[in-house]
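Lab notes, practical 5.
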Amino acid sequence: MFKSINQQGFTLLESLVGLLIFSIIVFGSGLAISKMLNTQRNMNIDNILINELQNKLQIAEQTATTATICDADIFKTNIVINETTYFVACALFSTEIEALKGSSNSSQMSWPVIAASSESKIVAQQCAQGVLGASCYRVGR
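Output from the prediction step:
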């Protein structure tokens, strides 16, 4: 057979370099998709937890007066989502508001804040009182 001086085609080294570049691109895309799906899952869990806290707050507001809302039985139960327990706590905030500008008459306005934390009941209570942490979820004013 005759040897051609100007051979056409890829050598083994060129093919391996192309395969390496392709595998890096596929691996990077897989990591990006995995991170995106994990972030989406965490956002869905956060949304479910916030909705559960809002439901608890609405039920408590319908069944208790503002002064005793944090003593409602609904805040004594924890929320379990995806095998993770979120501890629930309530705090009541009050502030004085003026009835009319320049008037010496003032009245108290109170509102509840519901919080949840996956760490402990103490962290949830601190969160409800305004000490925010990484695992703190709050609903209310």
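Observations recorded by the TA: The CA atoms of residues 15 and 80 lie 52 Å apart. Residues 12-63 form the longest helix (52 residues).
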